[in-house]
Design brief:
7 strands; about 45% helix; alpha/beta
Length: about 250
């Protein structure tokens, strides 16, 4: 039954995504970024969560909204699943996502990403990619936007050792803005590299922000400690909820 429900979700989600993109395509050259965000994107995000809930029984519980400060902000989130690449966007007023450049080249979908002012990174470009990312992120922050990055760069399985990259520390220092750590356990319910979705509750915690102006070493240590401590706690809560249905954690790299 889980496989059937997961298949139904996939069909409905991709169908809805295509319909939303086609519906707004005629106005895409004329609508503002904020106008596109407040209509197409928010409706699409709401539809995804609704479909996930009614087809797969996956609910969400998000706490810590009171920790989100006004103004420019760096958001550093744990990355276990494709879920947060979409769902986290709905938590902020005007986010700019740092993402791999290849996504911008997808026909139609990439056009929407460009219109929304997302920040592409060419992972093969080395130091020049970091400089370009920082330049674009600083421009977005100057507009009062929130910059969202996954410090580990790619999805990590629940229970896998953390693998934080230096890019988030570099960005934090350059932006001179507070950083909001985000912990989650999404990988238990929307696993990476897997088709099935497990019924249960994805938990997300928006943790107290780290102030601007910390040294790079102190920032790196505190960020990893706070995200990992909270994510491990949420992981245990998720495992208890799943009970016999819980996956076997491999502590894989």
């Amino acid at each position: 039954m889980t496989v059937i429900r997961s298949l139904l979700f996939q069909i409905c989600f991709y169908t809805a995504t295509i319909l939303f993109m086609l519906a707004f395509l005629p106005v895409l050259p004329f609508i503002s970024r904020q106008g596109l965000w407040n209509t197409c994107v928010k409706w699409w995000l709401g539809t995804m969560n609704w479909l996930l809930r009614i087809t797969c029984g996956v609910h969400t519980r998000i706490t810590g909204h009171e920790n989100v400060p006004d103004g420019p902000l760096l958001i550093a989130a744990k990355h276990q699943s494709a879920w947060e690449t979409v769902a986290l966007l709905s938590l902020f007023k005007d986010p700019a996502f740092i993402l791999k450049r290849e996504l911008m080249n997808i026909p139609v979908f990439g056009w929407y990403l460009k219109k929304l002012g997302m920040i592409p990174v060419d992972r093969s470009a080395g130091p020049s990619a970091l400089r370009d990312m920082t330049k674009r992120a600083r421009a977005a922050a100057d507009e009062g936007r929130q910059i969202l990055i996954f410090p580990e760069g790619t999805r990590r399985a629940p229970g896998a050792p953390p693998a934080y990259k230096p890019g988030v520390s570099f960005l934090y220092t350059a932006l001179k803005a507070p950083c909001l750590p985000v912990a989650l356990n999404s990988g238990l319910f929307w696993p990476r590299r897997a088709f099935t979705r497990r019924p249960g509750t994805i938990r997300v915690e928006l943790l107290p922000p780290l102030p601007a102006g910390l040294s790079r070493t102190e920032f790196s240590t505190r960020l990893e400690t706070e995200i990992e401590t909270a994510s491990n706690r949420l992981l245990q809560q998720g495992l208890e909820e799943l009970g016999p249905r819980a996956p076997q954690l491999q502590n894989e790299e």
